[in-house]
Design goal:
Oligomer: homodimer
Number of domains of chain A: 3
Largest interface: A-B, 75 and 75 residues
Number of strands of chain A: 13
CATH architecture of the largest domain in chain A: 2-Layer Sandwich
CATH superfamily of the largest domain in chain A: PurM-like, N-terminal domain
Strand content of chain A: 15-25%
Chain lengths: 372, 372
């Protein structure tokens, strides 16, 4: 690990290509595959034409360096992949199918053309895997950090679109995959970064020579053994297309759905608020991976809190009518964690010891002050 | 003029609202008006449904503080307005109609809720004037400057969409409005900023007290008299819906079209490159406002160079078949500046003295190194 190790040495300067040259360089071999994509990169707009009766879904995300990602431990290929996944996940959360994507980047001088190629590699890998065309974007400069803005467009049949607002009393609350691992991965990366940076400082002091100091710790090997799953969840999340497909095959249309980006509690609150319901979920039913539990213990953190508020899981949280219990139970990698209640019962977590606690949204919020 | 005068004093802290509170605060009274907008802000995605046969246009722009705008002289309301216009203009450049917009902002701590309200005021003013629904977005934090990412969606009948690539030999080259004024407005603002900043420095040195110094020059009045048009072109550009409507009423579908954001030369090159043609334009026909000419002289700049390469005009550049000469001549605020030629003739500017010069794209390019 070294400072911004994932930026290329001896780079091809972006300035040598200029804006249009760079866009051409990054996008000229992109082929659009979906029949609705009439025109991709290369004009003032992309042009789409959806068949009659399809509803069009639009989602957008803005990711800022230092807030949403740290380039000291995020390889650019992973960052491209994850930036796409974050948006793909929002389309799945409506029970839709991602179809097109626009990608805007603002880069500072320390980025080379190869760096952006690497970012695009990850981005394209994600888009190819999810059948999504890259149809446009903007590449410009930034005085400071990297900014990434992605808009994803998807489609769905009108009777299949799932809102946050459709949950009803007695509906089952289901979640895919497991929770809290991405957050534990982040803690792990932050810990190793702190160790690395302090070793670097010590070496600098000892050698009174920054470059020798840097060299001396370049061999620094962070301790990630046995934690690969946590890292993968943080650096290479997967939008759950498989769950959307499994639901469709099982003939299940959820009554409400959302993807878990800011933590289970926060997303459950969105569903309950917009559906005008309460909910009861059970601590013992929360899906938690073994590595997540071990890491939480090591860091002296409550693993349930991590699962509830960790965020960045990109799992799907959805509700189905009670009558679909057997069907939903048969789905792979989906767990029933509780049920929807009347609104006056509030949002409750039933702990392992039977005590009920009110759920709070303490998930990650980039704009909120920390209340200690 | 004072440093970042347009940021509010005694602000309501963004942190008090948090991300969801802030989004709700900024968007809760937005009503969507277009029939294709089924669902706006408030779920994982916006939902649209276009009637059969309409083509959907998508464009996106990322604007970064310090690169695309300077908050020392750009009021936030104007910034919101202009951010929208930049995108609306791209939809018109395809001969389309803007319909929906998503808006993502990354803001640093120095912004208050009121600041964002002011930004949104300008944004909504632009969207209302152009019949465009605000349907979603993302509001997050930035460690440094303000980042604005907007995606605009529009529609058009398939036989009305105009690409950059349709220009043919002998087509007339037309441009709306006038050129170079926005660039002159920028020069003017930069000049007054430099004067203000140096006065501030002098006062600080004299008084050895920054706050008194600041106070002493707070009354500083930049000299903008007689230059109002230049300022308006820079700070409050108008996307040319009127031209699109006038073309439609006159029964003209341009063969190629683009909006002038990076300068006439650069945009003309895009059209010729993608249409595989050359062009000849005439210096004496370039539409230049009186204020632009006066300001260029004052700054000892060549006004033709400003018109060719200034950028940010957001006028429409389009080509029509020679047979439509009379119809296009009758359009208000449109000027024929030259014609399309065979590709081997290159891109030529015929100067006032009859000399022909090859056109170069020297327009604004945020990623290109300055070649002096």
């Amino acid at each position: 690990m070294r400072s911004e190790k994932f930026l290329t040495d001896n780079p091809l300067e972006i300035a040598e290509l200029g804006e249009f040259g760079l866009i051409h360089h990054l996008t000229n071999d992109i082929e659009t595959k979906n029949s609705e994509t009439l025109k991709g990169v290369g004009d003032d707009c992309a042009i789409l034409q959806y068949p009659e009766g399809r509803q069009v879904l639009v989602t957008t995300d803005l990711l800022m360096e230092g807030v949403h990602f740290d380039l000291q431990y995020t390889p650019l290929k992973h960052l491209g992949y994850k930036s796409a996944m974050v948006n793909l996940s929002d389309i799945y959360a409506m029970n839709g199918r991602p179809r097109q994507m626009t990608v805007s980047l603002a880069v500072s001088k320390r980025f080379s053309v190869e760096d952006l190629e690497t970012f695009y590699e990850g981005l394209r890998l994600a888009c190819d895997a999810h059948g999504c065309d890259i149809v446009g974007g903007d590449t410009t400069s930034s005085l400071t950090g990297l900014a990434i803005s992605i808009t994803c467009i998807g489609d769905a049949a009108p009777d299949k679109v799932v809102y946050r607002s459709g949950a009803r009393d007695t509906d089952l609350i289901c979640v895919s995959g497991d929770l809290g691992a991405a957050y534990m991965g982040l803690q792990l990366l932050e810990r190793e970064k702190a160790i690395y940076n302090s070793q670097l400082e010590n070496e600098k002091l000892r050698m009174k020579n920054a470059s020798e100091g840097a060299k001396a710790v370049e061999e620094f090997q962070p301790d990630f053994s046995g934690r690969e799953y946590l890292l993968e969840r943080q650096l290479k999340p997967e939008a759950r297309r498989d769950i959307i497909q499994a639901l469709a095959e099982a003939g299940i249309v959820p009554t409400a759905m959302i993807d878990i980006s800011d933590g289970l509690s926060s997303e459950l609150m969105h569903i309950c608020q917009q559906s005008h319901t309460g909910c009861r979920i059970f601590e013992e039913r929360l899906p938690i991976d073994y590595q997540t539990a071990v890491m939480a213990e090591e860091l002296n953190m409550n693993v349930t809190t991590c699962a509830l508020n960790g965020g960045e899981d990109y799992e799907l949280l959805f509700t189905v009518p009670l009558t679909q219990h057997d069907r939903v139970s048969a789905l792979p990698d989906v767990k029933i964690i509780g049920h929807i209640t009347r609104p006056e019962l509030g949002l409750q977590l039933v702990c392992r010891d039977g005590v009920e606690m009110a759920l709070k949204a303490q998930g990650w919020n980039p704009l909120k002050v920390e209340s200690s």
